[in-house]
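Deviation from plan, reported transparently: iron/sulfur cluster complex.
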Amino acid sequence: MMADLPDGSGHPDLDGVDVPAEAGDGVLIDRLGRPLRDLRISVTDRCNFRCRYCMPREVFGPDFAFLPRTEILAFEEIERLARLFAVRGVRKFRLTGGEPTLRADLPVLIRMLKAIPGSEVAMTTNGTLLKSQAPALAAAGLDRVTVSLDSLDDATFRAMNDMDFPVALVLEGIEAATAAGLGPVKINAVVRRGVNDHTTLELARHFRGTPHTLRFIEFMDVGNSNGWKMDEVLPAADLARAIDAEWPLEPVDPAYLGEVAQRYRYRDGAGEVGFITSVTQPFCGTCTRARLSAEGSVYTCLFASDGVDLRGALRRGDTDGAIGALIDATWRAREDRYSELRTAGTAGLKKVEMSYIGG
Ligand code: SAM
Ligand code: SF4
Ligand code: SF4
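Because the crystal trials were delayed, the predicted structure below was used instead.
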């Protein structure tokens, strides 16, 4: 039996974790003492899937008003903001969406972001277009890719993406990414009780012994469209126990401040598996992420209802100093810890949709 099941104690808080003082020109700290380290950049609000937990087609149907092109940040605007975030300590940029690979000429943006000294650029994708795009993404300097894949059972996966898209093509995308040098790939699987929980061990078995790391994500109450119910959350501890019973696990120490996955190593040397326990064991204490929406608003929490409009500042010609001051003020005022405060009541608050700020 695994000695140390996830119980919340595995999350580091800022005490005892070395926060380097030399990040950028200065470390920007929020009201709860958390530094700004990562920026998730949503490059489009569109997607070629209609995952029921994210963009259910009843809401995101043919009449849904996606952002018009002119309202989406241009690459030059994203780059300018990214540089301003970099000066404030951000080193990791993650491209997301919607589905980021739907944005035309993405390699051009990757090159621009990689030109920022010390930057790392990663991407989260549903993997559908990796087969054709992986070589160009890798050549542009993309450092890593995370592929979302909720089940290997074809019928379950086709129903979850609600586009009848087959598993086999996503697996081919993962292979293409690996062949292009973007591996090892992280695989994200959202677990929804009664929907795909019966296929989790099959996923674990498939990725054991490969260089890729599978991470199970608890179904979250993001946005207001996905009909979230606590009953559908399978606690990561239950899943970890089931995997441990099959293939014994041992905990791995967090690799860095703000790591969101609790990681476990298979005792037989077959690699690692991770759990993102946002619901049952929140990790707000180490949350160092800001999120930039496709239309240029910055959100300081995945569950925020409002963002701060940076596009307006860019387009009215504000100086770097003025836009930087807006970013500073936004982060300094931050006191979000939605997941730690989550109750039946908070789940119903108005929140930005996941497809809008990219998870
Ligand atoms: N389209 C890309 C993809 O699916 O990887 C990037 C954007 S997607 C919003 C980012 C991540 O959020 C995916 O791994 C997805 O599974 C996860 N996600 C979306 N809705 C979720 C929910 N309600 N609970 C937990 N994770 C969710
Ligand atoms: Fe699209 Fe990703 Fe949301 Fe699925 S999770 S609908 S692939 S944005
Ligand atoms: Fe960060 Fe908000 Fe998630 Fe807490 S709920 S970990 S503050 S994004």
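Residues 19-357 form a domain with the TIM Barrel fold (CATH 3.20.20.70). We consider this an acceptable substitute for the interim report.
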